[in-house]
Amino acid sequence: MGIDRENFTYRGRLMHLVHTRQLTRSLAEDMFDTADAARRLNTSRRGAEYLQDSLVGRLALLYFVQPSTRTFLSFRAAASLLGMSAAEVRRTEVSSEVKGESPLDSIRTFAMYHDLIVIRYPEAGFSEQCANFFVDHDLRRHIINGGSGKDDHPTQALLDLYTLHREFYSRGGIDGKRILVVGDLARGRAVRSLLHLLTNYSGVRIDLVAPPQFRLEDDIKVLGANAFDDMRESENIEDFLHEADAVYMTRVQSEYDGAAQTPTSVVESYGLTPARASKMKAESIIMHPLPRQNEIPDVLDRDPRSRYWDQVENGMWVRVALIAHMLSCEERIRSS
Ligand code: NCD
User: Fold this and answer.
1) d(CA 9, CA 145)
2) Which atom of ligand 1 is nearest to the CA of 156?
3) Three-point CA angle 249, 255, 259, nearest 5°
């Protein structure tokens, strides 16, 4: 039996993770169970050693040629929690690409030494190209998309969903919740990917708030219109704040602005000030993929509803679970 080219699965397991749409609800929830189990194991020395025995001697490469702090470090930490060693390539100007080597030749070289390659790349579609190349050449190594262009960021979506799952676990789950998404929805891949994953749940209601130039792209709107119970749009955050079960804030993706930087008044128009936060429900939560600019002031870090620093930690554990799934050691972790 070969690899399913549509979903990059092999015997029901993800061989590569390049698109958020590969993550079904059951697959994601299985990973949340693994993430919880790994977290529990890591609270004792014996447990931590057991966890590290999972993938001793296996190697990961982090090929990150677009800026990253959290995703990069969290993959590195996740690999080491499982006992893997992690190498990194972050600057093409010190790799053979300056000698004219094509990125695909570089990736093929990486595959000679590593079991898993995590890729963050400025152009959309590169991880998929690599995954197809691996399938064509029967290279039995794994690829994870660690963020590609404005398009997709599957592991960010997974950690956001894990955060929502943990939060709403004892409150009826994610089904039926109203989620407000705010900011640069045109260029923020984290939002696109999260909305994709939320289509796997029932009765979800989505509210979108973006400045006129940063409205969500039509492809995701069409997807959402078919999948969500309700989808409303406004330029005014105050229209929806009081009803939200979760408020997902995002920054202006200013790296795409070039010389014409977005004026600060745009961020002020939608930013979550303490006065605005006071209109939110007491049991609602505030999320953000980070890095933030001014759309959430530091003072809100002390608000008991803030979850963005938890998201960072959840990201590491859900990446542990993803790697464990792809490299076939999640049973060992869950049965411990
Ligand atoms: C996000 C990204 O890179 O898309 N950051 C992240 O991975 N935590 C969001 C962002 O950069 O705004």
Assistant:
1) 15
2) 7
3) 125
Residue 58 in contact with ligand 1 by CB distance below 6 A: no
Tell me which residue has its CA closest to atom 2 in ligand 1.
190
Nearest-atom number in ligand 1 for the CA of 189 is: 4
251 CB less than 6 Å from ligand 1?
A: yes
Per-residue pLDDT tens over the stretch 206-245: 999 999 999 999 999 999 999 999 999 999 999 999 999 9
86-135 pLDDT, tens digit per residue, is 999 998 776 777 778 888 998 999 999 999 999 999 889 999 999 999 99
Which of 156, 248, 255, when mutated, tests ligand 1's pocket best, judged by the most ligand atoms within 8 Å of its CB? 156
**Ligand 1 within 6 A of 189 CB?**
yes
CA dist 277 and 275 (Å) reads 5
CA-CA distance, 145 to 131, in Å (whole number)?
10
Return the closest-CA partner of residue 130 out of 100, 114, 109, 108. 108
Gap between the Cα atoms of 220 and 311, Å rounded = 23
Q: Whole-prediction pTM value?
A: 0.96
Summarised one tens digit per residue, pLDDT across range 252-264 is 999 888 888 899 9
126-136 vs 103-113: helix crossing angle, rounded to 10:
60
Q: What tokens appear for 270 in the block? A: 């939608």
Q: Is the C-beta atom of 153 inside 6 A of ligand 1?
A: yes
Distances, alpha carbon 243 to alpha carbons 44, 201, 239, 247, in Å = 41, 19, 9, 10
Closest CA to 22 of 38, 36, 4: 4
Q: How far apart are the first and last CA of the chain?
A: 30
DSSP secondary structure string for all residues of 49-77 = HHHHGGGTT-EEEEEE-S--SHHHHHHHH
The whole-chain average pLDDT of the chain stands at 95
Share of the chain above pLDDT 70, in %: 99
Q: Is the CB–ligand 1 distance for residue 158 below 6 Å?
A: no
